[in-house]
Amino acid sequence: MHLIPIPAFNDNYIWMLHDGERALVVDPGEASGVRQTLERLGLRLDTILITHHHADHTGGVPELREVTGARVIGPAFETMPEPLARVSGGDLVDALGLRFEVIDVPGHTAGHIAYFCAALDGQPLVFCGDTLFSGGCGRLFEGTPGQMHDSLARLAALPGNTRVCCTHEYTLSNLAFAVAVEPGNTALQAYLAQCQALRARGEPTLPSAIDIERAINPFLRTSEPEVVKAARAHAPGSASDPVSVLATLREWKNVFR
């Protein structure tokens, strides 16, 4: 099974899994790159998975469905390009001989979902859309800090070697913020250097891995003393519980330059 990030727009990735004959894609915000990749590799598009309703994740769905006949699967409680099969947390999706568990991860949007595959060439993966980024998390457009905290906790509880297939190349900007929050984190410093080298070669920083994110991502580290201290220094008088720390970090990140 082959995993490919297809670049789209300025910084999106449309993830493709294929077995040499059939393919699935995740969050195709546009169709052209997917169609070109299918043609170049001689693949048939079998399934489209959608994590949430934003146009940069759904814009290519109607064309791809019409051209390829692929089935479309997406979140149960969001406005989606019909027709599609709707799923929510705990549901199972079978595609390409693989089984994906659906995880509810509201926060970025109200009905955001993720797809976790435990058995894939000995290394699991999760398609997490805009909930968890490497070094960061999505903006809270529709959900609450509490929802995002719970969603990130669900993802952080996945096996440490789970590949994190998020959908934006935000890693370097996220890590710049993470260093501002936790400058004493040596794992973070090493990961930043690694990612800078990848981008200097024009390579993606993704997928990341859950164990990496547990070590370097401040939004998964809201109980760590240095992260709590930084959040309270940024917002004096703010509370120190994990949800309040996440809320402070997210508001800080929104204006961080």
Can you walk through the features of this model?
- The strands form three sheets. The protein has a six-stranded mixed beta sheet, covered by helices on one side. Strands 7-8-9-10-13-14 form a six-stranded mixed beta sheet. Strands 11-12 form a two-stranded antiparallel ribbon.
- The longest helix is centred in the last third of the chain and has 15 residues.
- It has nine helices and 14 strands.
- It has one domain: Ribonuclease Z/Hydroxyacylglutathione hydrolase-like (Metallo-beta-lactamase, Chain A, 4-Layer Sandwich).
- 35% of the residues lie in helices and 25% in strands.
- The protein is α/β, with parallel strands linked by helices and 257 residues long.
- Helix 4 packs across helix 9, helix 5 packs antiparallel against helix 6 and helix 8 packs across helix 9.
- It starts with a strand and ends with a helix.
- The mean pLDDT is 97.
- Strand 8 and strand 9 form a beta hairpin.
